[in-house]
Each structure stands twice: as C-alpha cells, then as structure tokens.
## 1
Amino acid sequence: MNLVTVLPIVIPLVTAIVSLFAWRSLRVQRWISLAGAAGLLGSAVALLVAVRAGGIQATQIGDWPAPYGITFVADHLTATMVLLAGIIGMAVVPYSCASVDREQEEAAYHPLLHVLLMGVCGAFLTGDLFNLYVWFEVMLISSFVLMGLGGRRPQLEGALKYVALNLIASFIFLVSVGLLYAAVGTLNMADLATRVPDLDRGIATSLAMSFLVAFGVKAAVFPLFFWLPASYHTQPAAVAAIFAGLLTKVGVYAMFRVFTLVFVLRDVGATQTLLLVLSMLTMVTGVLGAVAQNELRRLLSFHIISQIGYMVVALALFTPLSIAAGVFFVAHNTLAKSTLFLVSGVVERRRGTYDLDRLGGTYRESPWLALLFALPALALAGIPPLSGFVAKLEIVQAGLEADAYIAVATALAVSLLTLFSMSKIWNAVFWQPPPASEPPPRRPPAGERWLMECPTAVMAAFTVVVGLAAGPLFGWTQAAADELLGPFGPSGYVERVLGEQR
Amino acid sequence: MNLILPFVVGALVAAGLYMMMRRSSIKLLIGFALLSHGANLLVFSAGGLVRGGAPLIEQGESLPPAAHADPLPQALVLTAMVISFGVLAFAIALVLRTYRETKTDDVDKMTTTER
C-alpha cells in the first residue's frame, strides 16, 4: 500500500465529509475547506517528491493484484496534474470565501468544491478505464451542482446545456468502455497496453475514435465544444476559475493517457491525422470566436477552446519533444487561465458587470490589478519571458521537427490573434475611460481585497516563475514524455503496475 | 438472448437520442433515461451472456466451470446504474428549477446565455 498515491483522493473526501458536518457554521466550514486545500497541496507535493525519487508509483487497493483489483498509478504526468489541482484548490478556496454569494456558499459550496477536486485527482490517478469513467462522473456531478448553485436564469440555462452535452459524452465513454471490454476482456490500462496491440486494427481504430469523441467533448475539441462558451461564464468567478483551469484539462489528460498507453496513436489508423486536423480547427475556431465576443468571460471561455487546440496538437504530433511541450503547455495554461478568470472576478466585484462596453478605467483605479491581468494575458499570447512563450516555442519546434508546417503556421497565427484579443480586453477594461453613464466603481473592503487579490497575485506570479524556471521544469515534463513515449514505449508503466506476474 | 440484446440496445439508444434532440426539456430527461438504459444493457452484454452459470469455483478446483457468466460487467453495470440514477435525479431537479425560472420547457427559448 503506497499512501502517497491515495492521499490526494482521501484528503478532499475527508474534507468534504467533515465540512458537511459543520453545515451550521460557514466560518468553521471555511477553515475546514482551507485546511483541506492545504492538505491536498501538501499531498500533491509529497506525490511529486515520491515520483521524482522512485519513478512511477503504483498502488493496488486491498492488495488485490492487478489487473483484478483497483489500481492507482502516479507517473510524472499524473504528479504534475495533481500538483496543478492542488495549487488551484489552494487559490480558489480563500478567493471564494470573499467572492461567492453568502447564500450560495452556505448551500454546500465547500463540500462540493472538495468533491470536485477529489474527482479530478481520482481521474488523474486511476489506472483503470472504468474507474476513470467513475471519477469523471464524480467530477461532473459536483460540477453540475456547482454550476446551477446560484439558481438564477442564466445559471440554470447554462447548467442545462452543460448537463445535456456532458451526459451524452458520458454515454459515449461508457459505451466505448463496454465495447473495449467485450473486445479485449480487461479494463486495467496497463493490461490493455499489453493486449490492444494484438487486437484487430479495424476494431482498435473504431474504439480509439469513440474514445476520442468521448474525451473530445470533455476537453472541448473543435466540433464538440459548444457547451463550453454557453455555460462557463454564468458561474461565480471562483467556480469559473476552477472549471476553466482544471475540468477541460481532465479531458486533455485522458487523451494523453489513453492515446499513449492504450491506443498508441501512430498505430490506430487515421486517428493521428484526424487529431491533428481537429486540433488546428480547435485553435482557429476558438480564437475567432473570442474575437467576436463582447463579454469578458465569454471571451475568455473561447480562449480556453483555442488553447486546448495547442495541447491536442502537441499530442497529435506524437514525438517525445511534442508530448513534453504539451505537458508543459497544460501546466502553463492551467495556471494562466485560472488567473485570468480570478482577475475577471475581481473586476466584476468593483464594477458589477462583465460587459466590455460598460467597463473601463481599471488601470487608473488600480494599476496593481492591471498588472495581475497583464501577466497571464501576455503569457497566454506567448510573450517572453512568461510561461506561454516557452510552451509555444517548444510546440513550434516539435512541429518543425515533425515537418508539420501547416500546424506550426496555424499555431503562430492563432498566437497573434490571441495577443490581439487580449489587447482588446486590455483596452476595454483597463485603458479606455469608463462610459459616463456608469456608476463610480465600488471600493471593496480591505478583507475582501486580501482574500481575492492575494491568491490571484500568487497565481499570476506562477506564470512568471514558470517562464523563468522553464529549463528545470521542461526537464521534468521531458521525463513525463519519456515515460509516456520513451524508447521502450509505456513498458515502465506496465511493469510497475503488473509487477512480476508478466 | 445474445442476438436480441443488440437490437434492444440499438432501439433504446435511437429512441433516447431522438428524444434528446427534441426541443422540450422534459423529453431531454426521458431521452437521457432511455440512453442510459441502452448503455447499461450494452455493458451488461459486453462479457457475453451465459444462462445460469454462476462464476463459483468448486471445492478442489482452481477455475470456475467452463460456461460461467462473467461477473465483471455485472459489477460495472451496477455502478453505472447507480451513477445514471443519481445523475437523472439531479437532472430532473434541474429541469424543474429551470422550468420554474424560465416558465418554458422549450430549449430553443433558453437563450439568455448567448447574449
């Protein structure tokens, strides 16, 4: 029993249960929630240290040997993702204490947040496809409730769209899992990695495609992203930050995992080409959609889609360098995107609107806040020395090495459009004078400012730190790529899970 | 049974998707219920259907009898059923709240998020 691989799931679970018992007192709930987030971050760091020291960590629950028992596995990729979940959890909990309406916060907000984090960490850690489905559902159900929590019309409508499309995606996922079991007779991912190569190519390709559709909806890839801009801008800013940062990345993570371990991408027919084309279309449609928006958070939502395209293009290129760049990009984007949503929440608290036409003058009023926006926004556009520059540079380099010139050209052009639309926000929210008809901005009390702006500042600082420490961090993501796609394929993962029985 | 079930699954999924594509949010719920039944039946039949062969190992043997039912899909389908039940219950509550708030069940009229 290897405790570090289970703690990132157990800690949010215990936190959620304990804070449910404290439902009478919001104050107690907040402290429990904060302690739980700190515990999750701590366990994520412990996992990272363990993976760094001892390579891939695997745990068989109840000592049932794989592939019969429930397996949790942590490699470099998993450790990175769990750490990101920990960081975002730690930033969002204090932020939501100040920004979420009291009524909503009392309606089991904190327990739900931790159940969501548990589902996310479970999806990252599990070594079994059916368990991946279950963790997806844990995550989705809590996200459904968090999304509809306000109970006002836009939130309910957004939640209904989100629920309907995600239910169909879950259905496709479950059906794919059932068909895969019928074809292969196992669902343990390490066991699948040894057996799928013997499967008929036609069956393997069609199964890979149906998994692609299932994860594509969750990750908001090109033709399947419509639920995202319809629902992400209706929630409280804290919830939007965690959704924008983490939830779509779970879909991306599942693609990285399944297409390197179970269906090795270059072996399953046209899936790789399809994925490459889809990723380019995702980048382009996302950014073009963003250019047309006039609501701050809808604009940012379209950028999520466009950025997902970069991650998928990195996967579709399928070289060790591109996978490393993709993992780096996921880390950079999770941090930068959440920060932007956190900043949008701070702006909304002052101005009471997200409408670009009604905003303005924030730079004069609070240069500090403008800086907090500028850092992640420029990082997203890929300006050196911020985190996005290194991420995009490596993706471009991997693309050039793989002779994928069209993908590289698309990535660069989309980057330019990202910068354009970030400068549009900058102009509308920070530089231009506010319309005369608008009431003067509200001065938030000091306590609220501390709770909301400190986590935002720390998150913004990450985009600088990740950019400056890109060398060692990229070394880490290269280690992740080596495990996924190394010279011996995923055999290290398989050996660690299945042990000596092979 | 092995021949009938694929058709049942197909019919359930087709009916479910048809209902989900209607404009009424109540039909969306019915569609989702049918769809999840289809998925559950599919997972259930994934291990192949065997009549009356319990996967029990006789004393002194090390393997279950030759024609035994695969217990794993049944365990999976149990989990999937619980999940779809929970999600459906939530979806019903959500549709009811949305109906009370918007005074309509027509999904095409729910456009406040697009503005």
## 2
Amino acid sequence: MLEEGSIERVLSLPARFIDVTFQSSSSTTIVTKDGRAKDISTGRSSGYGIRVLDRVWGFASTNKPGDVLEAAQRACKAAKSGDDEVPFNPRGGVVDRVSTRPRVPPAEVPLEDKIELGRRAYESIKDIDSVVSSSFTYMDSTTTKVYMNSEGTRIESDHTRVAFFASVFARRDGELQVGSERTGATAGFEFLREPERAAEKAAGKALRLLEAKSAPSGRYRVVLDPQLTGVFIHEALGHAVEADHVLQGESILEGRIGEEVASREVTVYDDPTIEGSFGFYIYDDEGTRAGRTTVIEKGVLKSYLHSRETSSRLGMENTGNARAQGFEYQPVVRMSNTHLAPGSAELEELLEGIDHGVYLLGSKGGEVDTAKGVFQFSAEEGFLIEKGELTSPVKDVALSGETLEILKKVDAVGRGLGMHIGFCGKEGQAVPVGDGGGAIRTYATVGGMR
Amino acid sequence: MMVEEALKRLSKTADEAEIFHLRTRTFTVKTKRYGIDLFKENSSEGYGIRVLKNHRMGFYFSNRLDGDALEMAVKVAGSAEEDRHHALPGEQRYLDRDQPLFEMDVEEGIKMAGELVGACRDHKGVDPTAGALSWSTSQTTVANTKGLYAVKKEASISAYLSTVAKNGGPSTGFHFQVSRRKDIDPLEVAGEACRLALSSLNPARLEAGEMPVILRPMAVAELFEYALIPSFSADNVQRGRSKLQGMVDEEVFSDVTIVDDPTMEGGLMSEPFDDEGVASKRTVLVEKGILRGFLYDMYTAAKEGCESTGNGVRASHSSLPQVGPSNFIVTGGQRIESEEEALVVHGLIGAHTSNPISGDFSCETRNAYLNGRPVKKAIISGNIFTILQGGVGFGSDVRQYSAVVSPSIWLPPLSVSG
C-alpha cells in the first residue's frame, strides 16, 4: 500500500530535488528440469526508492513504510557532502497514468496452465536422438509503479512482461553441447503460445554443435547474423554512447558527435516505443517521456543516450534513457531496444565474394571496454564461409576487435530486422532490453579453440 | 506474524514447512573521477516460505509474513508435481565460532571513499573513473517444522576502483577488495588499479601462437567460476551435465587439490550453516588429482541417498535453494618455475561465455604482459579439463575473489591470438 502521507513529507524535505518511486510487483517463475516442474516460485514484493539531489545524489530504499522518512532524511544529509555540484536542469511537473494492457493478465491464469508450457516444450524434444537434458524457464511479472517528484510530477504505470527460456543439452560420443533460445515480450500470457518452437530451436542448435568443428583463429571477413549484430551494437557501440560512460572518460566516442564513426551503411536507433517489445516503456524511471533516438545516421554519430543529469551536464537533449531494475536501485543511463537499421542485401549477397571467412550466429554474451573501444563476445554457433558458400559448422567461437574499426569496415547490411530479448547487467542492475538489426558483413578477429 | 507462529500454522495445512527470513542493510558510496557521486542505503526484509505436501513443493516469497502468503505457498504445492526427493533438514549442530561483525557510520564510509579516489593523485598520468565503497550487515534465519531454528549474522565491506591512463593509451585498470572484517585497504585498491593502468600503456601487438599463460588470482576466479565450478554441482552431475560424472575415485587432474570449505577462517563465504540450515562442513572434491565427490544440497542428496554437503545457496529470500560453492580452495604440488615467456594475465573479459559443461573457453585478457611488457590484445583459448590434466604450476600469492581461493596458476601452452 502506498502511504501518501509519508511521501508528502519526504517530497518536502529540504533539497534541490527529490523523487520517490513506490513499486509493487508480483511474479511467477517455473523451472522445468528434464520434464519436471521442479522449482515453482511465486511471490510479491513492494517498496520505496527515494532519490535526493543536493550537492550530490543520495538514495535510499526500504520495504518498510515506517522507515521511509528516516531513510530519506539520511539520504538528504549525505547528499550535502562532496565538493561537486551536480548540474540538473529543473523542469515542469507531469501528471499521467499509463498501462501496457496485457490481453491475458498472468494473474488470471491458473498455475497449471503455466506449468503446462514447460511440459509441452519438454514433450516436443524429449525423444530426439542425443538429447540428454533440458531446462525450460517460464517467467511472468506484473509491476505497478507510482513515480512522484518535488516538481509535481506523478506518473502511475503498470507493466506486464512474460518470457520463456529454453536450454537443451545433447550428447554424442562423450561430447556434450547446449543450445539456448529466449523469447519474451511486454505482453500477457497470450504471447507464449508456442513453447515448442523455442524448445525445438534450442535442440537444433545443440545438435548442430555436436557436428561442429573448432573454429579457426585469426583475422577474417565475417558475417554476423541479426542476433549477433544486435549484441555487437548493444555491447560495443551502445555502451559507448551511454552518456554516463562518456562523462566518466570511459568512452571512445567522447567528443565525437557529428563525426563519421562508422561506414555509411550503418544507422543505429535506440527505441523504447516499439509496441510489445521487451525493452518497451512509455516514461523512463525519472519521469521522462520516451522516444526513438537516432544514435548513428549513415555513419555519423548523432546522439548519446541520456538521463536528466547527463543531458544537463553536457547541455544536450535528454533522450529518456534513465532506467532502474526496481525500487531498490537508482536509475542509470540504459539502452532500451537498440538496433542497426536493416539494409537490402540477401544473405547470399553478403556471402558473395568472401573467399575464406566465418558466418557467426547468436550470442552467449560478451563484455566490452568502452574506454579502449574493444569488445569480446562469443557466438552460439558459426559456419565457415568458403568461396561465397557456407560450409562446415564451427563451435565455441569468440569474436573480438576494435569497435570503431569494425563499424567502419561494414560494407553491407542484410534485409529484415531481427530483434532478440535479453537482460542488460550494467552496474549490477538487470533491465530488460531488446537488440537486433540486419545481418552485417565486416572484418573481425575470430578466436577459436584448436 | 512471527516465524514460530507461521510454522505452527503451516504444520496444520502442510506436511513440512520452512521459513527463510533475510534482513539486510547495505550502504554504498559511489565515486566518479575524484568526487562522491552517490550515497546509497538499501534496507530490505523478506521471507521465503517453502512447504511440502504429499511430496509436492510450494514456494511463495513476500516482504510480509501474513496469512495470505502462507496460504499461497500451500496453494502452489497443490499445483506442483509429486517429487519424493524434496526434503528439509532436521535439527543440526553448528560449529561454534563468532562471526566478525562491525559497525560503520555514513561519515566514516564517505571519508574512506574519499581516500580511495584521493590516493590516485599520488600517481601521475592516471585518473579514477568509477569506484565504490560498500558495507553491509545481514541476518538470516532458517527455521522449519522438523525442529530446525538457526540464525546467523554477517557483515562485509568492499571497495573497487576503475582507472584510466590516457597518454600512450588509453589503458584501463581495475582492482577490488572484499572482506568480512573491517580491514580493507582503500590505498592498496587505488594503488593497484593505478599501477595496472599505467603499466599497460604503450602495449605491443602480440603474435598469434601457443604460449604458457599465468593467470593471476582474479583471472583464475573469473575462469573457474564459469568453466570449472558448475561441473562439481551434483545437480549438473545427476542431469548428465558434467564431464566428471561417473569418475569418482578416478584421476581427473594432475597434482591439483580442490576443497570446498565454508569453515575456513576469514573466508568470504564462511558461515555456520547453508541457506537450508544444514551445518557447514569441509568437502574434499579433488585430492591430488583424484576426484572424491561433488557438492550437494538437500534435494540432490535425497536423490542419491547421501547427505547434503551444506551447499544449498539462495540468492535472496525470493529464490529457491540451488547447489553452489562456499570457499572453493584450489592448491597443487607443482610450483611456478618461471614467469618468463609466459603471458601473465590479471583479468579476463567474457569469462561468463565459457562453456560450463565442456569447459571450453575463449576470453579476451585485461592487463596482460609478456616478459614484463604490456600486450595490446590477447585472446586465450583452451579447455579447463585438458589444462588441469596437463600439469599446472602454483604461485604463493593466494587471494580470494568471489568463491575461489587460489594463488596465480601457470597453464601449459594455450592458443593465444592477438
């Protein structure tokens, strides 16, 4: 329950700016291991996050309504320390109420029906030769939030998300491989109609990996499928245009707005407004109305991604990218749905003229050093490209290189936008994001295991 | 409602029940360049309610222990599948050792964070980027209807700092310390982070090829967490997801010993009991290369008819227990003979992309050196099982990062690409 009285008192504490987020959520997670719905976890949580700006930021969170005022007072006191004065442009208040309106709210679906999804997924792959083990995870969460600040803003919102993760293990001749697949959306239970598809895709990957050879190591002409393109755009470019990284001196793109940083084939957007997307939101977590941001247009760097603070510090327009995992966390600059705009090439055209290269698909995650502009991530699977044709499957292949060099060497982009879902873990806060693009052709260092 | 009262109520509607209660309070002072960026305080309290009814398990988590939450847990059990391996432990005897606790006020924390970034002024040509000082206290209660009632209190403190050196770079450095006692040294954290960034300036390009690799303790921990530890989980073993399955009492590695020991003095993961209330004990996993066993929680132990090793771990009150390591201590008989001609690696990028089953990995390195000279970019690839079979050497600089307690480790020639 939201305690209006104590919020009033918090918002009127002496500080330059205060905001309070009250959040209440319920969720269900079901892990089906080898056909058994072993771990079923349901529950609810609620609490308050209070942010105070004076000289610097103070933040407090608690799930005890009785502690809110005292915690806010401690945050107020701490916010007066430090010699810095955080620039923060004031603005007018907004009152609004928004909803993602799921067609079938997960709360109205019997638990048995949710368990059934994992069972169906298992049934669809259990008899496939060489499949030895599987895990399927069903997740739903429904969150209601009230955001209030000392400028008079009050935004009430609710958000429903569902997701289904599959991982299938296959073994042959002592070799064990795993294939994974994820699907999810800002939607209700209606979105997860075909758990079998995710299971079959994951099984297909595991089986292909059993056939795969180790990848070669060295510098190659490469083609990245839309999913890996998305991960590259998120990890290598996206994190480097987060304005907090720029301000911390941790971005290779510092001071380069308006410059050509990629080939003319490259246009990149960050777009939280894509209906039903995993990274969807209407207002960010400091009450800024969200919109599509053009990050790179035909190779030219157009914008960083901003929060209120970073846009105030850099004197740039706020893009509404301040996001928090939940009330326990302060919002930081985050991506939403980040993608490289598709081009017109068919896959065959992308492969054409590559004598000896690697086609890389999917991602097992990665990391990036945005200050040095280098990245590394692992593809889920790959194929050798020989004389313009896909030949042997390869496995355990890492891709790395210098972000800008790779962006400059993109000489063709495939048609069709493929978007994938994930959770970005910046600063220890997991927030749902989407990333994708068209397939790209470029050069990179491929590190395989021989 | 109190825990005892809740268990009393649940004993009327369920066969067995457990309440896991976690109360935490964490303070963090984040730094940005030379200043304080954010002061943060999180306090939270939550309950995880687990019930067994007709061998079906129900779980519900909540910030409040009330009638609704209890009812929901029982209701979930009604929809769950029957599984005879769900089990809760009875009363336990715990090792009687005081946990080191300490108090710290906000002013003291802000002062220490100031020392952390301020120390960088003594190092020319390098600046701090992001850092933090964080301290927390927690109280965990695990109680069940089989007579178990266990309470533990813990405290910890940590500091980390990232740095960047620009002239001749940019190059970056990162270092951190964590302790269960109030004994971390912000000056050492800052000094090491600055030193790493500065010593990585003007790197040379590395020729691709095979060469021995020495992983410093932080890199060892990063690699082992993702590529090795999962294979010791009984859950993975039982489900055919471990290369070590069926190899107990066989020689799996060369002269390497691995022990999981939650009773280790001063260990970051030391505790009197695990998150199911099972008393902590030392478990030998590998003895001089011979595989001796795996890590179990109550469920996986029931499945094999053995005892839990006390490795039931919960991420929070809202999570069910899973098998996880405590202090994962790695030692060996071979010494590192020479660091010459070996790629010395302080940290890894992308260790989490390692294959947790096959042990294959391919990671970019952070702060890597060859014969004392920094290298620009190096990807090291290999298989953790092949490496540990092949003979590795151990240094004497033992440190603990996350669960892994290890010195630097010398690895036989690996594929390295620049």
## 3
Amino acid sequence: MDTRIDHSVALAALVGQVSGEPAMGPHLVNEAMIVHWVEAMGDANPVYVDDAGAREVGLEGIIAPPTMLQAWVMVGLRATLERESARASGSAKSGEESANDTMMRLLDEEGFTSVVATNCEQDYDRPLVLGEQVAVQLTIEAISDVKTTGLGTGRFATTRYDFYVIPPSTERSGSAIAAEVASAERIGTMRFRILKFAPAPRSAPKPPRPLPSVTQDNAFFWEGLKDGELRIQRCTSCGTLRHTPLPGCGECQSLDWDWIVSAGAGEIYSHVTVHYPQVPSFDYPLPIGLIELDEGTRIVANLDMNPDDVKIGMRVQASIVAFDDELSLPVFAPVTA
Amino acid sequence: MTTRTFESVATGQVLGDLVLPITRSLIVAGALASRDYQDVHHDPVLSKERGSPDIFMNILTTNGLVGRYVTDWTGPGGFLKKVDIRLGAPNYPDDTMTLRGEVIETADDPADPTRGVVTVKLAGSNSIGDHVVGTVLVSLPREAS
C-alpha cells in the first residue's frame, strides 16, 4: 500500500520557473581571488595571472579560470554563518518563498529529505576578465519522476544558473539587478543536478555469531582456538583421533584422552554452500567444507573462498580467525601452489 | 609554455595521468578559494557529527582540478568551453585521485574558424571508486595556414 505524499502536479508546475530575484556577486572579478584559486588547484596556467602570458595566446589580458564561474556569486563566510545559525534556531526565512525553496519544501514533504549533488555541467560563453561584475539568475529546469537509486527513492532536480555581466555600478537591490540582467550579456550557464531522496533503511549492524556450548569434554578445543591452536582429541589407549570431541573412544571405548595440535593442513572431503535460510550473523552464499586433516580425522569448517571454486580433493590450509572477542574458529582456504 | 594545435590532436589520444594527493590542505584551500564555507569541507569534528567520516572535497574544487587537468595538457592557448561532470565517491583526506583522459572527438569551432574544439572524456578515481567522470570541451588554435 502506497501512502506516500505525491506532489507530482505541483512540482511539474515549477519546471521552467525563474527562482527568486537575481543575485549580484559580492566582489568584482579580481586578481586576489584568482590567485587563491589557482594556488589551491595547483594550476600554473599563465593566462590567469600574467598579462603578457595571456596576450601571447591571443587574449586581451588576464582571464578568470572559467571553472571559477560559481565562485564569483558565492555569498561568503558571514552570510553562510548567518544562514546556518538561522537554520539551527529554526527562525523562519523572511520574505517570499522562491521557486527553488518551494521545490525543496515539496520534495521534503514527499519524504525525500536527504540531498546529494550528482551532476554539474558548466558552459562558458566567454571568459570573465578583471573588473567585471557577475550576476546570477536561477531557473528550475527539470524535476524527474520518482526514481529508485542505490541511495534510496527520490527525484532528480536540475537547477540552471545563468550568469551575466552587469555594470559594477548596479545598485544592490533585487529590482535594480533584475533590470540590468534583463538586457545583460550572458557569459555562462551551470546546470546543477541533485538527487533529493529518502535514504534506504540502513541495515542493522550484523549480530555476532552464535557462541558454542562449552562442556568439560570440548573446552580444550575452544580454548585452543582462542590461543590460535587447532586441537584434535586423541584416545590415549588406542591413539585414534576424533572430532568433534566426545567423552569416549568410538574404537576402543576408552574414556582416557588427550589432544594434539593439528597443523591445519588437509583436503576437501566434501562441501556444501548454504544459500537459505539466511541467519543475520553470516555472509551468504556461505561455503562450508568437510576437511580431511592430514593427521587423520575430519572437521567441518568455514571455507574462505568463492563457492564456485570449491572442489573435492582440493588442498586447503586452516587459519584461526577471531570473529569477535568471544569466538575464534578455523577457516580453511586453498593452498596456492 | 607551448599550446597544442588543433591539427596535432586526434581522436583516441590519451592525456597523461595526473596523480593528485588529496591532502587536507587541498580540500580546505579549494573550499575557501571557491568561497564555500560549509563546515563539511573544513571541519572534521562537525563533519563527523553530520555522518561523514571526515571532511571531503567540494564540487567547485573538483571543477577546478578537472579544468586544470585539461589545460595542463593543451597549454595556455586551450580555452575551456564546457566542463560537464558527474560526481561519485567523495575525496577524503589522505586519499589519492588519479585523473585520466582521452580525446573522443575533434570538431570545427562554429564561432571561430581559426580554432577547433576537442572533446576530452575523463575520470578521476580514488581508493573508493570514481570521484568524478565527465567530458570537457576545449578549443585549440589551428595551425596558421
């Protein structure tokens, strides 16, 4: 049953709408900001810093790095901090909601509260030169249908930024900037695409593997694994090895036993791969081997290999793997020749 | 510094790799040079509070590095016309990003008969995967006839 709020109609109505009034970059295109940029990027191109070098390749002087386009209209530290503190205190935005604000609110209401930038496409009509004043106008260009992505379900939204050069003397008011932009030269555009999405439910952390039931008969085996040893029970009357641990010998019925430390080498006697049912503590598909140890008994253990590569008769070697503080187990992997 | 001519470039030509250590300094300097003061680009403590393992590179820096990669190859007379990127794995500190590119198209410049436009397809990969994939259009001067 789908009870999701669907704002498809309202969102479709936003496409093509200009968002808010155009904004003016806080500073003219200037040498200091360009130098900060090229030093950060490690860009040694002379056309950004050296008038003669720029003229050498046919330019009329220094140009700004074209990829700086958006940097000229960034609001700066003070405005960023003010915006963040307003958001933190929950104080409402003053003034009218822009088309972009409306879009974000509708997407939030649809449950798509997370955001990630996916694409940035910049087109440069001409380079910016020192002393120019940049202005920007946003337009909602596209809002997708609801899509399912690797991050979760949501909508892609593309906002187009049109960049203009306006007179440096333009008054810093929305209407004055808008009046200049209406007749200004566009020098570049940027299409910025985001995914607004509802995060896929995060899978719960994997619970630890179940612990063994430790008895007087098998404690030596589990304690050995904690010490990094694969211990195999041995009948002290007839010398027969046995695993899993038992109180008495199946051959001679003696109740006397000790243990040896296996070298962990052997071959795959049989195997199975578990696909289902899946228990949360394990990774699937889960290959399990019955290993014929060189010392002469068999043990069931995890195989650390691709299930498709498991072959009967394959040589394998155990290593003792600590799955958590409480549990260590032998895990067998193929012996590489 | 010399500039490649349009005639010297052919489809299939490979740009040399640019191997960039992703230092904290690069991430922070790039963020501040682009006047992007969001804390996830300079404050590791606040980044963790927001669910990120560390600070990460902002998009404007990625744009700048991609542009630089292509004009490093063209020389100063290569003029960027378009930078179109798709974003993927974040660039966290102490990683390395390797940019690789290839010429996939050469065409006339409709605006200027003395120049031609080259399309470079590129990818910048780090230890997590592709940080950026994209195409860049750059115009190059034709050889004087």
